[in-house]
Amino acid sequence: MRSIFLTIVAFLLVACASVVPPRPPLDAVAERFVKLTLEIGEREEGYVDAYHGPPEWAAAAKANTRSVEALASPWFAPFLMRASRRSN
Q: What is the pTM of this model?
């Protein structure tokens, strides 16, 4: 009986000790998305209906003169890589 109890305690300690790797903060992902959307809105009339965020983000979007291809490449490159691997 004692060995069963010790085994259960050992399993519980091992289960509690496992470390889950941290996920990227959602705020950082949301910030990248909003900034990208603002930049697209500078090139596509009517894309951004209203914006009530930090004014410096909107100013940075106006000042940034990246092309549409440059805006799309960091976001779509991982998807394109996966698609090309599947087609081979």
A: 0.57
Does 67 reside within a domain? Answer: yes
3 located within any domain: no
pLDDT in tens, the chain (88 residues): 788 877 887 777 777 766 777 777 788 888 988 998 999 899 888 999 999 999 999 999 999 888 877 887 776 666 666 666 666 5
Give the number of domains in the chain. 1
Residue 56 class from Cβ within 10 Å (0-12 exposed, 13-18 middle, 19+ buried)? exposed
Range of the domain at 39: 22-87
Q: Is residue 72 part of a domain?
A: yes
Is residue 14 situated within a structural domain?
A: no
**Cα 13 from chain centroid?**
33
- Which pair of structure tokens corresponds to residue 23? 């996920």
Rounded Cα–Cα distance for residues 64 and 42 (Å): 9
